[in-house]
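ugh ok so i messed up the first submission bc i forgot one of the chains. this is the corrected input, ALL of the components this time, i swear. 802 residues overall. if the numbers dont match what u have on ur side tell me asap before i send this to the collaborators (the ones from the other lab, u know who)
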Amino acid sequence: MRSPYDEMHTVSAEVREQYRVYERWLERQPGASMQARREEAEMIFRRVGITFAVYGAKDEDGSGTERLIPFDLIPRVIPQQEWTAMEAGLAQRVTALNRFLHDVYHDQEILKAGIVPTEQVLKNAQFRPEMLGVNLPGNVYSHISGIDIVRAGNADGSGDYYVLEDNLRVPSGVSYMLENRKMMMRLFPDLFAMHRVAPVAHYPDLLLETLRAVAPAGVNEPNVVVLTPGMYNSAYFEHAFLAQQMGVELVEGQDLFVKDGFVYMRTTQGPKRVDVIYRRVDDDFLDPMAFRPDSTLGCAGLLDVYRAGNISLSNAVGTGIADDKSIYPYVPKMIEFYLGEKPILNNVPTYLCREKDDLHFVLDHMHELVVKEVHGAGGYGMLVGPAATRSEIEAFKVVVQSNPSNYIAQPTLSLSTCPTFVDSGIAPRHIDLRPYVLSSGKIVQTVPGGLTRVALKEGSLVVNSSQGGGTKDTWVLED
Amino acid sequence: MLSRTADHLFWMARYMERAENTARMLDVNYQTSLLPQSADMAEGGWRGLLSISELTGPYSKKYSEVTPHSVMDFMVSEASNPSSIVACLHAARENARAVRGALTTEVWETQNQTWLEFNRMIDADRGEFQRDPGTLFEWVKFRSHLSRGVTVGTMLQDEALHFLRIGTFLERADNTARLLDVKFQALAGGDDFGPGSALESIEVDFYHWSAILRSVSGFEIYRKVYRNVIHPAKVAELLILRPDMPRSLAACMNEVVDNLQRVANEQSSETLRRAGRLRSDLQYGRIDEILATGLHAYLTAFLDRVNDLGYGISRDFLVPMAA
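and heres the new structure output, hopefully the right one now
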């Protein structure tokens, strides 16, 4: 593995252009003042209640344990020209993914053309036959997409961005992007006077605009709501935050009911019709009559109303077929197929264990690969070859061979690092980036940057908040 | 607004108000216990406090005798006691958290901060609390004032605010009535102030009556309104009938009715009628009539009617049957 690309320093330890002003500023800060700022940030996050619940951990009174996501004081800085290219690549990729979704639920031309294997789609658990032939406003399925991007270093010291995965179901984390910026401006107003940092605070506005734009045809003043599983869900803060910022109701399944082909919510003034649901509940739990019958988080009869076109769901039902890890390797081909363009963003080279040749390669090279479950999420069910012991690798080989089509493998990219304020001082830690892409069918929009996640443990590549990851503010510096 | 949202707002306000009133009642008992008095009388005061909140049973399951320390522990930091300050502040905060989107940032942060600070205080300063419980009670009252102030000062004057206000004043009406009931019974030695009880002949213990007034922030108000020595019938009149006394039953019912009228819906007419009737009974009532029928009987009937209103509000607005 090559030594990783560092966002602040070049291989010869020079400070990169976009960090020069910041670095000079940082040098002047006494260590004690940074520590004091860190404590201040923690206190504010707790008071504001920006917490997430940890699954499985319970207080003595039965409510979920509320924890803070560690916030790092040192921003991740992206120069304008890099962002401009990335933004174009994101729009291109998400547009192609939406075209793919419309296609697989309608004419299936990409399957007929043999570009994506038919059984890979139709036999996939994420494929929803209920959606076949259903027309959606603007033909858009993934209105809110979170695209995970990493930067890996090259031999010559340069670095390239790669898309690690697409999140088209219920991508989360955008509230941390917004709160991190607010926190940075509160703690270090002087830094913002010294830098032209592109603002992000208008995200809820763009989100509301997107949700209103995908309302059922003929509805001019749509009633938009956010559907949450409830206050003990790990992302509850974000659900409440986005509903409040957009000025719309935050509903739970019990607040909704279906009557005469429409969805209503129970209000103090009687039933009120609902037109658009920004649902933060997985497909499986949306409608006990159509999906999991034991779900109390959804609304009985919702799917029928949806198929009849009387309610819009964001994201659509069935988007999981496009962000499945087994479909990911085909995204560059989708871009060429639907848009006739060369992909702007790189995919990570991926081996599909369901293919015989690939499987052999993976078994032979497991010590240098990352092997992942096709449907895994949150950093669970994966093996990081270079970090695993010989016996762990042998054991995992058995697991993979028992069900090869459930696994993919990728070379271990050395994720770029960014200086991070840790207990021992300032040290490099691995980071990724999740920009949020909004698609309404008329326009594709992003706010500059996204959420930067950082693996706080030295050498760790796992940035998930459920496994000890933290976050940073992300700056796109305007020229 | 969502019925569930209104329900959480209503209970958030009720629990915050209840925390304040628990602190007020503990405070008045604590202050009077510092006066020279017989041990029986002191214990009676603490027993009365438990019976106000209908907690004599749960208390005796946990403690064998009534001591100031145990009662205060039970009413301040016992999480299983639904009227304890810790339980009320927790419930207020959890209700707020469930609908934080319907609150302004300031309101939510005030509730959350109250809960976080309270925990810090009872964890870290337990010894300090036992030496000087009054400071904690003052703090709870202050946080409740702050909570109400930030609500009125920052929230849009829409349904959300109305349901918060209904919760506050319904709870306060209930709590003031309970306080009056138990304190008058204690001071009258079980006399019901009924006909022939010769209210005038009760030896007026200035310190006890003034403590009751202070527990509802009414001592200075009493002087201002009556310009007279403390007189039990006038204390009752002030706390029941004076519409300008902010913790009186009449003032609470005025607020309940005004706010209910603003959220009225198609099915709420009966609840509104009952609330309006209760208000006019207070508006046109006279203290000599009330005392003639018996204060205890009057307050018991009032508590039943407040309870009935709570059910009506819940049925009409907060937990409507499936449509």
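quick check: Chain B touches chain A at residues 1-6, 79, 90, 94, 97-102, 105, 108-109, 112-113, 116, 159, 163, 263, 265-266, 317-318, 320, 322-323 (CB under 8 Å). that seems consistent at least. The radius of gyration of chain B is 20 Å.
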